[in-house]
Amino acid sequence: MIKSNWAYPTTVWFGSGRIVDLPKACKTLGIKKPLFVTDSDLVKTEMVASAIQSNNKNFIPTKVYSEVKGNPVSRYVTKGVEVFKSGTHDVG
């Protein structure tokens, strides 16, 4: 199993199971109130539930925006920006 980090031009955390590192990534980036963006199918998975629960256990209150479809059109992006701004989320 390969796990790695690299930066070009931004840092990428890559590898099987790396979702467990989400709280560490948030802390590294200084993100205190993230908005977790996913699609309407993935939001139903254990992986997403586990990621949100892990963040919340680490005192990183995380909200979810899942009104997205694959290959999103502009209305999904526009709505996501509205949700982000209305929730006082941060980007680090």
From TrEMBL:
Keywords: Oxidoreductase. This is Alcohol dehydrogenase iron-type/glycerol dehydrogenase GldA domain-containing protein. InterPro entries: ADH_Fe/GldA. GO terms for molecular function: metal ion binding; oxidoreductase activity. Transmembrane segments: none annotated. The lineage of its organism: unclassified sequences, environmental samples. Residues 9-91 form the Alcohol dehydrogenase iron-type/glycerol dehydrogenase GldA domain.
